[in-house]
Structure formats: structure tokens, C-alpha cells
Amino acid sequence: MRKPHNWLNLDIDYIIKEYQKGRSAKNIGEELGVSKGVILQRLKDRGVKRRQRPRYENITEEVLRKLYINNKMSTRAIAEKFGCNNSLISKNLS
């Protein structure tokens, strides 16, 4: 397969390693000065499976209120417990 004329010479092994460590394609792209689309395409070209967005069905309003009000946990602490960001927690508490 012929590479496009504007093909950037990126360290694909570094990209794969960082992505598999859990970094987002957006974050890696920002570091390398390219879009997340470029990162995702390079990963796809090398056969790396894309991570699926986590589902948060177990973060119900009832669970959140118990943790936030009864257990007096901060939205940040709750977010860390569920592996998401605190804006998702805040949004589901309102």
C-alpha cells in the first residue's frame, strides 16, 4: 500500500504502548501534535483493537446519592471509584 504524500513519520510502537497502557487516542495525539483520528487510524493499520467506551449502568442516582449524601464522598472520589470523570457524577446527581 502506498503512503499518502503527507504521511507523518510517527513512532507507532510508542503509540501502541501508550494506548495499551490506557491513554486515550486524543491524549496521545495532543502530545504528538496530531488528531485523535490519525492515532486511531495508525492503531487500526497495525491491527490494534479499539477500546470500547465503558458503560455505567451501575451508577444509578440512588447509588450516587447514597455515596454523596450518606457516605459524604466527593464527586471526585465517587468518580475514581467508578473509573469515570467527576462531571459524569455531577450530571447524574442533578
Short description, anyone?
With 94 residues, the chain is an all-alpha fold. The chain has six helices and no strands. Helix 2 (25-32) crosses helix 3 (36-45) and helix 5 packs across helix 6.
Please give the structural blueprint:
Elements: H1 12-21, H2 25-32, H3 36-45, H4 61-70, H5 75-82, H6 86-93
Helix pairs in contact: 2-3, 5-6
Question: Sheet with the most strands?
Answer: none
| Total E-strand runs | 0
Please state the CA-atom Rg, rounded to the nearest Å: 18 Å
The ordered string of helix (H) and strand (E) elements is: HHHHHH
Strand content: under 5%
Overall body shape? elongated
Oligomer: single chain
Question: What's the rounded overall pLDDT mean?
Answer: 87
Counting structural domains, the number is 2
Count of DSSP-assigned helices: 6
Helix content: 55-70%
N-to-C span: 52 Å
Uncertain segments are none
Find the structural class using helix and strand composition.
Answer: mainly alpha
Detailed description of the structure:
It is a single chain. By secondary structure, the chain is an all-alpha fold. The protein folds into two domains: 12-45; 61-93, no CATH class. Helices cover 57% and strands 0% of the residues. The chain has six helices and no strands. Helix 2 (25-32) packs across helix 3 (36-45) and helix 5 (75-82) crosses helix 6. The termini are far apart.
Considering the chains and any ligands shown, give keywords for the structure:
single chain, 94 residues, mainly alpha, 2 domains, 57% helix, elongated
